[in-house]
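Deliverable D4.2, example record:
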Amino acid sequence: MTDRYAVIGNPIHHSKSPLIHREFARQTQQDMSYEAILSPLDQFVHTVRSFQNQGGKGFNITLPFKIEAFRFATQLTERAQSAQAVNTLQFCNNSEILGDNTDGAGLVRDIEVNQGVSIRNKTILLMGAGGAARGVILPLLKLSPNRLTIANRTLDKAIELQQQFAGFGNIRSTSYPELIQEKFDIIINATSASIANELPPLTPNVFAAQTLAYDMMYGKQLTPFLQFAQCSGVNHLVDGIGMLVEQAAESFYLWRGIRPETTTVIRMLKNS
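Output generated by the structure prediction step:
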């Protein structure tokens, strides 16, 4: 019997997850289907339960339901607990519902494996203090960077994250104006500025020629942040397509116990 999986969100028509997971299933010869489900904003639990009762095995969760999924899960992985958000649900045979967050794993795998940049001993600037940033802090710190700096327009939110994760590694918080004298090996944009075609209030001097500029967002053209990095002399520019595919591969591995090959899928999406 074909195992059923899906991605749930609102809106959902833009999701690339069905394409990615169907390609993973074809590649690994898994007997499974994967669909996109639009849930009314006030009926997330009902929509999930309905799919589960029809024999569904698991879900990917996208906006705006990641926090609701965090509350819905009966068991949480360490990375979901630290992110306080869930992007993957697995319906277990013992009626438990496992909640995981694979975003951070997708990010670090894209940086280290696909981009060939080791995180160990690097200075990292993480821009933003919302859900996207929170979800990647623990996976980044577990790879022992020299220091992880969180910059945010509202400093209190950055300080809150620093305090939450202080026990996991060298982490600090700062406002953007305080960055004027610093350069970083890796700069990650976890803000939503690119969606509005805007730029975080960053000064060009944070970049060095060898800096990796990474934007979690992606589009047909370079995001405003990546354009700014390019104009500041940076050559290593990466958007979020690789992270998208790698976090999907991590979910697939959780569900199926097989790690799919991602390079061809990333290439396929970039060329589509």
